[in-house]
Amino acid sequence: MIVVDSKENHSRKIARNIADEILLRQKLNKNIVLGLATGSTPIFLYTELVRLHIEEQLSFKNVITFNLDEYCGLCTENDKSYYHFMHKYLFNHIDIPSENIFIPSGQVEQLFLKDYCEGYEHQIQKLGGIDIQILGIGRSGHIGFNEPGSEIDSVTRQVKLHEITRNDASGDFDGLENTPTHAITMGMQTIMDAKKIFFMAFGESKKEITKKAFFGEITDAVPASHLQKHKHKTICIDFNIK
Ligand code: PGA
Asked: Could you tell me the strand order of the sheet in which 132-135 lies?
C-alpha cells in the first residue's frame, strides 16, 4: 500500500511502471495485455501515458487492451460511453493498433449476450490473460461493475447497477432517470486472474469503502475486499486509512 499526497504522483509512477513493462516486452518481441478502467480515477494516468508517447516516443504497437466494463444501451458514438471515454483520454493520442483494443459493447441484443460475454472472456484467455490490471473502486465497493453480491468466480456478464453507483453517475447523465440501469462487466474471476493489479482510490469520498475493502472482512458484500487475496497488487491512495 502506497500513500502519497497526490494522485498525479501515483499516476506518474504507475505510468512509468507500465511503460517499463511495455519496453521490456518490445525487447522480447512480445505483446503485453493491459486491463483498463474508466471514471475520474485513471484520467491522469492516461494523460501521463499519452505524454510518454509524445515526449518519450513510447510506442503502444505491442499493447493489447481490455476494458473492464460498459453501460448497456449506449452506442460507441454516445459521449457518455466508456468507448468514447477511452478514445478521448487515451486511444486517439497513441499508436495502439485499433484491432488491439477491446471494450465490451453496450449494444448487444439480449439473445446474444451470453455468447458475447463468453467471447470476451475467451479473447482475454486467447491473448494470454491480463498482465496488468488498472482498477478504481466505486462507493458501493465495486471493482469494474461487480456490485455487492458478485461472486468470486463470476466472469464477464451483464449486471444490474447498484443504486449508489447510479446515483454517483447520475450527474453525468443529467439525472437518475437517464442513468443506465445495467452494464456489462468483466467478472471478479477475470480481475483476480490478472497477473498484476494497480488499485487506485483518490479523495475522501473513497476512504471509507477502501478501508472496508482492505481492512475489513473478505466478503461478496464488498467485492473489492477479495483483492486482499491477490498476491501481486499495489494499492495507491491519497489518504490515511489505518
Ligand atoms: P471514479 O469511479 O473513478 O469515477 O470515482 C470509479 C469506479 O466506480 O470504479
From this structure: 2-3, 233-237, 196-201, 132-135, 32-36, 63-67, 101-102
Q: Is the CB of 136 under 6 A from ligand 1?
A: yes
Ligand 1 centroid to residue 43 C-alpha, Å: 10
Structurally, how many domains does the chain consist of? 1
2 falls in which pLDDT band (50, 70, 90)? confident
Is residue 242 one of the residues assigned to a domain?
no
CATH of the domain at 23: 3.40.50.1360
The protein residue whose alpha carbon is closest to atom 2 in ligand 1 is: 39
For the segment 78-97, the average pLDDT, to the nearest whole number, is 98
Is pTM beyond 0.85? Reply is yes
- Whole-number pLDDT of residue 3: 84
Domain that includes residue 116, residue range: 2-237
Half-sphere exposure of 65 (CA within 13 A, CB side): 24
Confidence check: pLDDT of 145 > 80: yes
Residue 5, pLDDT score: 79
Tell the residue nearest (CA) to atom 7 of ligand 1: 138
Indicate whether 110 belongs to any domain. Answer: yes
